């Protein structure tokens, strides 16, 4: 796999603007030909965190003030490099309107904000989905002279309505078990401006999150909360300043349309007084629709390696 080295972390606003005006994207999204992911990695070396942006992020997701990067912020820092892959003319799926399905993250050690970081991203596992086509974007963040990987994230996105040839949508359908909500441990009240607020600190100005009008233009009934805002906030609540390696995952099941009230339950587990992890779930208490669920656990418990 070849590597394209970028001069700096790309600006997400420019990438979205390019996607809006890209006729090539429209042609690709409607093409019935084969869809192939770019066999190329994008990489930025020696990138430095903006302390003011970090502070704003910590404040927004209710993370304690610290010199070390919240795991959700690392995603925000690395995401534009992955996004630059999706903005390429040879990327086989349309960037705008992508739906966030899942995140899986390994956080190997505390990352100080002053450390120069190298971000490497690539795309893999293009696959059919009952509602379209999904793809996984992988981002690795490394630091230090040895270039050790300190964080790895895998994000799964869905291009709705874009189907792979010969993919059987009926076969991919799966029945969901009825959701019985637990007793909530918290309730989040999110205003209509929650998407704009997160965009301001993350740079993720995807139109589906900004306003009712911009979301409707892309087929949504209202603007919706960023998946990474929801993930960053719940994981920050669980992890805060934990120093040992850990991993977390989150699956998004139904969108959080803004404004919204989200019921949340976090359950911690222990084995002989040793913390073994947490599970969480967020839902709409009126409709009983589950918005997201996931877990956090010490990385050693999973047997994963930073070189896997």
Automatic annotation (TrEMBL):
Residue ranges of every copy of the MaoC-like domain listed in the record: 179-273
InterPro entries, alphabetized: Fatty_acid_synthase (IPR003965), HotDog_dom_sf (IPR029069), MaoC-like_dom (IPR002539)
GO BP terms in the entry: fatty acid biosynthetic process
Pfam families: MaoC_dehydratas
Family: Belongs to the enoyl-CoA hydratase/isomerase family.
Source lineage: Bacteria, Bacillati, Actinomycetota, Actinomycetes, Micrococcales
Top-level taxon of the source organism: Bacteria
Molecular function in Gene Ontology: fatty acid synthase activity
Coiled-coil annotated spans: none
Protein name: MaoC-like domain-containing protein
Entry GO terms, CC: fatty acid synthase complex
Species of provenance: Arthrobacter sunyaminii
């Amino acid at each position: 796999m070849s590597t394209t080295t970028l001069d700096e972390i790309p600006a997400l606003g420019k990438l979205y603007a390019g996607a809006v005006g890209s006729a090539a994207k429209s042609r690709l999204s409607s093409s019935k030909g084969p869809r192939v992911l770019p066999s190329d990695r994008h990489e930025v070396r020696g990138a430095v965190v903006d302390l003011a942006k970090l502070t704003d992020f910590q404040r927004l997701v209710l993370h304690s003030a610290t010199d070390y990067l919240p795991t959700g912020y690392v995603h925000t820092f690395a995401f534009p490099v992955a996004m630059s892959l999706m903005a390429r003319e040879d990327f086989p799926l349309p960037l705008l309107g992508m739906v966030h399905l899942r995140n899986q993250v390994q956080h190997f050690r505390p990352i100080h904000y002053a450390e120069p970081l190298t971000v490497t991203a690539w795309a893999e596992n293009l696959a059919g989905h009952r509602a379209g086509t999904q793809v996984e974007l992988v981002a690795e963040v490394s630091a230090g002279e040895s270039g050790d990987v300190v964080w790895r994230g895998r994000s799964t996105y869905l291009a709705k309505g874009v189907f792979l040839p010969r993919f059987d949508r009926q076969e991919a359908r799966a029945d969901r078990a009825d959701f019985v909500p637990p007793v909530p441990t918290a309730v989040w009240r999110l205003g209509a401006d929650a998407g704009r607020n997160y965009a301001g600190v993350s740079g993720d100005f995807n139109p589906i999150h900004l306003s009712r009008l911009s979301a409707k233009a892309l087929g949504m009934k209202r603007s919706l909360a960023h998946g990474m805002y929801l993930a960053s906030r719940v994981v920050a609540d669980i992890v805060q300043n934990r120093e040992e390696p850990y991993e977390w995952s989150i699956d998004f099941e139904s969108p959080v349309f803004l404004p919204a009230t989200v019921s949340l339950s976090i359950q911690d587990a222990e084995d002989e007084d040793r913390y073994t992890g947490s599970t969480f779930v967020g839902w709409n208490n009126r409709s009983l629709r589950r918005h997201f669920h996931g877990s956090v656990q010490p990385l050693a418990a999973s047997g994963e390696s930073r070189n896997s």
